[in-house]
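U., I forgot to send this yesterday:
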Amino acid sequence: MATTLPALRKQLASGELKPAYLIAGAEHLLVLEAADALRARAKELGYLEREVLDVEAGFDWNRLGDAGRSLSLFASRKLIDLRLPTGRPGKDGSAAIVDYCQAPPDDTVLLVSANDWSGKHEGAWSKAIERVGAAVPVWPLKPAELPDWIGARMAGRGLKATPDAIALLAERVEGNLLAASQEIDKLALLHAGTTVDLPTLEASVADDARYDVFRLADAAIGGDAGRALRIVAGLRAEGEELIPLLGWLLTQLRLLLRVASAGGSVDAALRNERIWPSSRESLFRRALKNGDRAHWERCLAQAGRIDRIAKGRGDGDGWRELERLIAAIAAPRRGGELLA
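Result:
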């Protein structure tokens, strides 16, 4: 049957494991933690042997059946950890999973985890897992749900926080659960046993620009030039240095150039890049639709110019040149005009 993360946690705490589980979704932190919780519970219950199967191109699906038939001489219970990043096993994989679930081996648990999920991913294989075990779709949090998630996570780390502090952190991370988790872990180390209020939270995140760099790149690649340029202005006002900002931008521009140069299916090329979280792929599809290889080459050349200016090896205003670069990334069809 399909279930939820809270129901999964309750089931793990209350009894024996089911023969098979599917945990899938684009919220990688939640998928990873749910899978970790299942692995930990399996270990507690004596599933001491664990076989990891990473599904990549050319994967031999006979390995799943072989894993179900073989047990270690040193363990009586086994966990098969099948990692299916795309959530799409293909024809052979679907048949192998269905066949496995028709007669699940005793004292063996199959965990299938995937980093993407939607109604289009469902099929005979996922229904087969539901019949003998549980499927746990992990949906992205809605903006209104994020403050409650942050509050609960803080409580789990022994922190108390005021509502305005929670609201500020939710605004700051903009749905990035990994960033929120990292900030909460830092607060737990520095302020354990105290109440985190708004001034404390502001002081904690004031000097932490890593969220802004990620947001800057995503806003530009996603075509939101106004928001991206506001982030640039904020970073400049806060006294940030240009060179550290360029590192992440260069990584993303090189990725765009590789995909634009790959030929063939853009979807396949993006999958090969293993963009995290996978929900960001839509930003890159939009940028690649509007900008060709020559455009991304011009953007990289502009980034090189900014780097030389920042290092004192070129003339000009580095921040003004960064604004031109960001505008060109956000509006590829005007790239020739912006970077002329």
